[in-house]
Design goal:
- InterPro entries: DUF1989, UAAP2.
- This is Urea carboxylase.
- It is a single chain.
- Helices cover 12% and strands 30% of the residues.
- The chain has 211 residues and is α+β, with helices and mostly antiparallel strands.
- The protein has one domain.
- A 7-stranded antiparallel sheet has the order 1-2-11-4-9-7-6. The chain has a 4-stranded antiparallel sheet with strand order 3-10-5-8, covered by helices on one side.
- The longest helix has 10 residues.
Length: 211
Amino acid sequence: MSTAYESRLEVGYDVPARAPFSTVLKRGQELTIIDLGGNQAVDFLCYDANDTAKRYSAAATIAAQRNIFLTTGSVLRTQEGAPLLTVVADTCGRHDTLGGACSKESNSLRYGQHTRYQHACVENFLIEGAKWGLGKRDLVSNVNWYMNVPVEADGTLGIVDGISAPGLEVRLRAETDVLVLVSNCPQINNPCNGFDPTPVRLVVTSPGGGE
């Protein structure tokens, strides 16, 4: 279970290694994702909280910014191009839009059948999505905060050691009311978590002390 703390302006959540999390951000609120241990991928989906058929689109986001990586100034957009979240601060410098979420199926294909029963990000998304009436058909290509997925010269993708470090953070501002789903990635078969998943901290900040 995630643990929470609260002050007048902030509500914070410590999300354990491998765990899911979800919340609704009101327009103008900011979400800070802090990599406590370093080299921990945080898989992320977001939806218009008032109409979840409008959800993050990797294709629209990449096309609008003409860059496959996310950092300060990037805007996460719906398939219609409407803004959901803006990256307003980033001390890591680059985040992935292409690597996708690990699943039992992809684990078994990439790493062998013995990994099929390992917990994965897709299961985390399904657990949290169910709380909001979402199911498997509502899962789309996701953001991987802090995950290092370079594109090689031949066009292939690599999953390599992260470029993050303990205490680095990315901060997002909600441009409308936004439902966010988080999987603190449980992957242990590639370097995206340094083969050792660790906790992360999420902090929701309200402007002017209100909601």
